[in-house]
Design a protein that fits this description.
about 250 residues; alpha/beta; 3 domains; five-stranded mixed sheet; three-stranded parallel sheet; 8 helices; 8 strands; about 45% helix
């Protein structure tokens, strides 16, 4: 067994796939650096991300798949589920080993798993678009915490850049400890060091403006006043707005 260790990026994964074909490695597993544990039963090889090699694999898939089928591989990769790299690699092997398009051949377990993972990530992406709540900081930057099940931040950035092009904002993934900052001209990846007592569910006066706190109070009052107890359907509500998102919604705070 050969273990290919990569840097957790999608380009790094595709570089590892290129290496498998280039070196004709017969028995291989692909694993991100942060998950690697030394083993006596495998030979580790560290893969250096190479965009040219990654593009060759991606362009090869483009010739075999439809645009929708191709996007599933990126979406499934962002699921970060255990051993997703090996599922995707086996799906890629199946695709390259067939002359016809088998990107939607769900009789193949790896194609089927890829599709299921992509669907779950897509669902989370749409929920993040709906449930993100920005708060105005004293630095005149709108800030939002998220804690998604999957790494969907790269999938939603363009949406928010187009929608809030005239505002500075940060969307920060607390689960993965990185965020995206838009400065009115470009987007860059950032990391933040929060104070030990920082509570992402609260709107602190030390961080956020008085106007923001007033708006949140009005927003909660609006939801309270428009709520009709006799028509309350908690089961349906939770189906559309799962409880795990409530702590980041201002209207759900006491």
């Amino acid at each position: 067994m050969t273990t290919l260790i990569y840097d957790s990026s999608f380009e790094g994964f595709l570089t590892a796939v290129f290496n498998c074909y280039d070196e004709k490695t017969p028995n291989v597993e692909i694993i991100p650096q942060h998950q690697y544990r030394q083993s006596f039963f495998s030979t580790p090889i560290t893969i250096i991300t190479n965009n040219e090699k990654a593009d060759r694999v991606w362009n090869g898939l483009k010739t075999k798949l439809s645009k929708a089928e191709l996007s599933k591989f990126y979406y499934a990769f962002l699921s970060e589920t255990n051993s997703v790299e090996n599922t995707l690699y086996k799906a890629i092997q199946y695709i390259f080993n067939n002359k016809q398009n088998v990107g939607s051949d769900y009789t193949n377990e790896h194609i089927l798993t890829t599709s299921k993972l992509a669907k779950s990530v897509s669902r989370e992406k749409h929920r993040m678009k709906a449930f993100i709540r920005f708060k105005l900081t004293h630095d005149n930057v709108y800030f939002a915490n998220i804690h998604p099940d999957f790494n969907v931040l790269p999938l939603i950035i363009t949406h928010f850049k187009n929608r809030y092009a005239d505002q500075q904002w940060i969307i920060y993934d607390l689960a993965r400890q990185y965020g995206m900052y838009y400065d009115l001209s470009k987007i860059e990846t950032i990391t933040l060091n929060f104070a030990s007592d920082y509570d992402p569910t609260k709107t602190s006066k030390e961080i956020f403006t008085d106007t923001e706190i007033e708006f949140q109070s009005l927003w909660k009052d609006y939801f309270t006043s428009t709520n009709i107890q006799e028509r309350k359907n908690t089961k349906l509500h939770v189906q559309h707005v799962p409880k795990r998102y409530w702590k980041y919604l201002s209207e759900k705070q006491p």
